[in-house]
Structure formats: C-alpha cells, structure tokens
Design goal:
Length: 554
C-alpha cells in the first residue's frame, strides 16, 4: 500500500510537491522561529492532543456506556467539537490559502502557473484540516459505532461508521468553505489594506461565534425538540443541527420532522463549496497584482502629537509597544482572540443566567467558578503570545537601547500584564457582582479573584526574562501535550477548590477574611520571589536549544 502511495506521489509535478511541502510547513510563521525550530515536532504535539481527546472519548464511552437516550447528545457534541476544531484551524491559518505578499514577490517572477500555486495551497490546507478531523475522531468513531452496533446489531456498525465520517467531513468542508467564501469575496472587493483590517475583525468575530455556539447552544434530546425547531428560526439556523440531521439521515434514524434540516445541510454544503471555488478563482486571477502593488500597512493618522503617559517612561513605552503590537500583528491578535473568545463565552454564560432568574439573585457557585475560569484563560492567552516576536530583524533596536537594569524591564512587564489582563477581567466580574446578594460574599470573591490574578501572573512570568514580542521561539522545544493536560488538571482542581473550599467559606465572614489573607500572603511571596530572581536576570532575545551531551561511557 505504501509503495502504491509513494508511486502515485512521485508522479505528481515537481512544482506541486515542492510548493505543497512549503505551504504545509507555513502553518507557523517562519519569520518568528528560531534557527533550530522543529516545525514538524510542533505540529505533532498538537496532533497528539487531538488524538488523546479522541482516545478519552472512546475509552469513556466503552467503559461507561451512555443510555440510548443520550446518543443524540453525543452526536451533537462530536459534530460541534469537529466544527469548532476546523473553525479554529481555519481562522488561525486565515491567510494560508490565499496569496500573500511573500507569495507574489517570490513565486511571481518564477515560471510557476497561478493555478499550480492555488492547487498546492488548497491541497496543503485540506490535508491539514483532514488530519485534524481524523486525529480528533478516529477512536471515538469506532467506539460509538461499537456501542450502536451492540443495541442494533452488528450490521449497523458499518452504516453508523460511514454516516459518522460523512457527517464529520461534510461539516468541516462546509465551515471551511464558508470562511473561504467570506475571505475571498472581501479580498476581491476591498483594497488590500482595508481587507487586512476587515480580516482582523472577522477573525475575532469568528472566534467569538465558534465558542458561543459550542458552549451556549442547547442540545436536541427528543424528537419533540427536533420538531420544535420549526418555530425557533434562530436555533434552526445553527449548522450543528443541520449536520446532526444529515448524520441521522445517512444512518437511517432521522424522524420525518427533521428531513428539512438535512436538506439545509446538503444545500449549505453545496453553497459553501461553490462559493469557495468561485472566490478562489477570482482571487487568484484578480488580486495577486493588487497584493504586490499595495502595501500591507496603513499609515497612522495622528490627531495628537503626544501619546498618553502611564507610569514612568519605560512603563509607558512598554505598554504602548504591547498595545500597538496587538493592533498591527495578525498572528498575535488571532491567538489572543482564541483565548479571549473563551473568556467572552464564559461572560455571556453569566449574563445569560442572570436575566433568567431575575435582576437580583442569590450568589451561587456558578459566579465564582466562571469568573475564575475567565481569569485563568485571560492570563494563559497573554502568556501564550508573549514569546512570539513581532519582527526579529528589529531586535537590534531593543538591544542597543537597553539603558536600564533588566529588573526594571521585568517589573514593567508585570505591571503591564496586570493592567491589560487582570484589570479588565476583574472589572467585568465586579460589574456582574451587582446582580448578586448579599454583597459580602460577592465582595470577598472579588478580593480573592484579584489576588488570584496576581498569583497567576507571577506564576506565568517565572523565568520570563525578556521583553514581550522580541524573542525568537522554538516551537518543538516545549511539550504542549504536557502543558495542555497540566492546565486542564489545574482548571479542574480550581473548580473543585471553589466548590468545596471557597464557596462554603464565603458564607462565613471570618473564614472569608482568613482566605483572603492566605491569598494575599501567597501573592506577596511570589512577587518577592520574582523580584529577587530579576535582580540577577539577563534579558535575552534568542531562544537557544538545549545542549544535550551524550556520554560514551568509556
């Protein structure tokens, strides 16, 4: 089998094979990597996360089989999760399918036909998305098929398995095609500079919509709920329900009341594929010259000659540098939007709960748990983008202008993180706390939340002896699977802590004050620890590989 595949690949045009490999490796911005970066290892670690999720679903389903009335919930969860992953990958690789300035400048003078570039980019993007879908569902598809066959006979295994994969691939193709259609049409209509600004807005909105649909959309549990979608057009507009009906249609288990949803899925898939094809053809025929002729950056329009001063000169300079980097860099903005979309979904969940119960409600565990999640994801998001450089070729400016000791820069980074990350989340939680009574538990939790933000920032900045966005990265250096599961375990432990320790203590003033004191002591200890380490720190701008010395044992 492998020999047949290799023979088929070797017969493809050489230009296609070279371009395909290059475009596939450009998932990560190559200009931000260190010389010793290992991109395949970086991609392999993220693939491993998806594989572990699939294995966990299959193992949990086989060890603790769900009741038959929960299968609809499981099917919708898998479809929603697949569409979420495909949407996140598509938005993170937003400009990989369409020609950018580098493609036009490097490949334009070469004797490479535009259609070859187009085919290679589509193949690379499709391979990446298909690989993500397969890693996410390969084990769970077998596990759910076995469970379905156990109650409907062994002959039902093949049909369920085929329906599962048809639905997952179709839902991923629909979402990817829809995003390509939006991107291609706007790239053809708008000037290049306006398109880049519009793309930034669309990416942030897309993240928010994807997470909102995944976390806030209700599930269809019974045929009565399915029939009720006719009188709820807003819910019926969700593609998750369309492809859920498509799955049951392929599996032969769709009630007659849901046939119209399956038709929507087929129509939506056809429109997405046709729109993506048309937008790609128009884009490659009309916008490659526009990409070369127009600059990517828009000159700033300054109405005032002065910039706001926040703290000292170094503090103001670093804070403005961070804000302008997030405003101008698509890579940083997209990754930060990924985490802040989760924060936004948590916030919308709290806002959604309050009106349903009343304008003034007693405090429940939902408020401290969700606000703690918001703080954790906000700090994680800023810490994830801080090592990514904005322009390595400009690092010499920061190196020659380092006129102060390193501890001053590290302290300015800490204060900027508190101001840009902890403060907005705390203000949002404080505004929501006015809906809860009595005031003392809500106020005590706000004090604990602020101290927890200080603690999380100090933990995130341990060993971070550099200016944000100025150091090269080694994508294959860190084990992201280990980091992911450690963060997930920390979130679970934090949730258990709130349920078992914090929330009961909030009902007793003495215990609440004692807990605030403990948090304050921990925050002060971590702050002192980082300040002492900063006194002997050295700012660095290049991520060096770990030197491994192998002994011969002689």
């Amino acid at each position: 089998m492998l020999r047949i595949v290799r023979t088929a690949v070797s017969r493809l045009p050489l230009e296609f094979r070279v371009l395909y490999r290059q475009f596939l490796m450009r998932v990560v911005d190559l200009e931000s990597l260190s010389i010793d970066a290992d991109v395949p290892a970086f991609l392999g670690q993220f693939a491993g996360l998806l594989i572990l999720v699939s294995l966990g679903q299959a193992y949990g389903g086989l060890m603790v089989p769900p009741p038959p009335n929960r299968m609809w919930h499981i099917e919708q969860t898998d479809i929603a999760l697949t569409m979420l992953v495909v949407g996140l990958v598509s938005v993170l690789t937003w400009e990989n399918t369409f020609p950018d300035h580098r493609d036009a400048m490097v490949l334009g003078p070469l004797p490479v036909k535009p259609r070859m570039i187009l085919i290679a980019k589509i193949a690379a993007s499709a391979a990446l998305l298909l690989f993500a879908v397969v890693c996410l569902n390969f084990a769970s598809s077998i596990g759910w098929s076995l469970l379905f066959a156990a109650s409907h006979g062994i002959a039902a295994f093949a049909r369920f398995f085929a329906a599962f994969w048809i639905t997952m691939i179709a839902s991923g193709a629909f979402l990817y095609g829809s995003l390509l259609t939006i991107q291609g049409l706007t790239a053809s209509v708008l000037p290049r500079r306006l398109f880049l600004r519009f793309s930034a807005v669309v990416q942030v909105v897309a993240f928010a919509v994807l997470f909102a649909v995944y976390f806030l959309a209700p599930y269809i549990e019974t045929p009565a709920d399915l029939a009720a979608l006719r009188v709820h057009p807003a819910l019926a507009a969700s593609p998750v329900y369309w492809f859920f009906a498509l799955f049951n249609q392929c599996n032969g288990s769709l009630p007659p009341d849901g046939l119209w949803l399956a038709h929507r899925a087929w129509i939506g898939l056809a429109c997405a594929v046709a729109g993506a094809t048309l937008s790609l053809l128009v884009c490659y025929r009309r916008t490659m010259r526009k990409t070369v002729e127009e600059p990517d950056l828009i000159p700033a329009r300054r109405n005032l000659n002065s910039t706001p001063q926040i703290g000292g000169g170094l503090q103001s300079a670093l804070l403005l540098f961070i804000l302008r980097t997030l405003w101008r860099s698509r890579q940083h903005r997209v990754i930060l939007a990924l985490f802040y979309s989760i924060v936004f979904a948590c916030l919308m969940n709290l806002v959604h709960l309050a009106p349903r119960i009343g304008s003034i409600i007693p405090i429940t565990p939902d408020f401290p748990i969700i606000t703690c999640w918001m703080m954790v994801f906000a700090v994680l998001g800023f810490r994830a983008i801080s090592p990514l450089p904005i322009s390595l070729t400009a690092n010499w400016i920061l190196r020659v202008t380092q006129l102060r000791p390193p501890q001053d820069y590290i302290a300015a980074v800490w204060r900027s993180t508190i101001l840009l990350v902890v403060a907005p989340v705390w203000v949002a939680a404080a505004m929501l706390s006015f809906f809860y009574r009595p005031y003392f538990p809500a106020g005590a939790h706000l004090a604990l939340l602020l101290l927890m933000g200080f603690i999380l920032v100090d933990i995130a900045l341990i060993g971070f002896h550099k200016v944000p966005f100025t150091c090269s990265i080694l994508p294959g250096k860190k084990n992201f699977q280990f980091v992911f599961w450690v963060c997930l375990a920390a979130i679970v432990l934090l949730t258990l802590f709130v349920l078992t320790v914090e929330f009961p203590a909030l009902q007793h003033p003495v215990q609440a004050v004692s807990m605030v004191g403990v948090f304050a002591a921990v925050a002060a200890g971590l702050r002192l620890f980082n300040r002492r380490r900063a006194q002997s720190a050295v700012l660095y701008f290049e991520e060096p590989p770990i030197e491994i010395i192998t002994s011969l044992g002689l």
